[in-house]
Amino acid sequence: MHGITKKKTIFDLSATKISTPSTLSQALKDSNWTQAMDLEIAALHKNHTWDLVDQPAAVNIIGCKWVYKLKHKPDGSIDRYKARLVAKGYHQTLGLDYFETFSPVVKAATIRIILTVAISFQWEIRQLDVHNAFLNGELKEQVYMTQPPGYEDPKFPTKVCRLKKALYGLKQAPRAWFQRLSSALLQWGFSNSRTDSSMFLSFCCFHNSDSSNLCG
Length: 216
Fold this sequence. Notes:
By secondary structure, this protein is of the alpha+beta class. It has one domain. The protein has four helices and ten strands; from the N terminus they run ααββββαββαββββ. The chain is flat and about 60 Å long.
């Protein structure tokens, strides 16, 4: 085990002299953050996240806010400016705009077992990162949200957003994403593990040189 570790290098990120804005007014003063918000809004519209509708009577209207974060490269330099529109889930009301919130989380023991088996059989391991995963979750509840700060429609300033897709911050967002992912995997031929609901298996059979079946 000698020589397998490397001393952790800590970079002084303060040297960049770029502060993360805490308010919308601060972000609007920097074109980098403005561009990041424009990209986020464009992605939300492309994903058909909401429809603008007249505010219905006797419904709960939740708020939303911008969250800013600087993404850094391994050497400490700035990679990109990230702006994310987050729903104020603490404005939601149980039984009105959300019901179930539970979403399965993969067990650490499952990951260790899979890696151990993969190494033993010399399987190829691949990792997939879904960009803005929660935004792909489809909502079954009727959730209404105010228009994004700084991006209100000038033609319809009094209208509200009726959410069709989940947003970060919603109480049911993790559950909605898991349901969307699991239903897609099952349609593609995967089967759900009985021991860990977050693990999906795909079995394919092929023949080796002695014509015996091998499944993996």
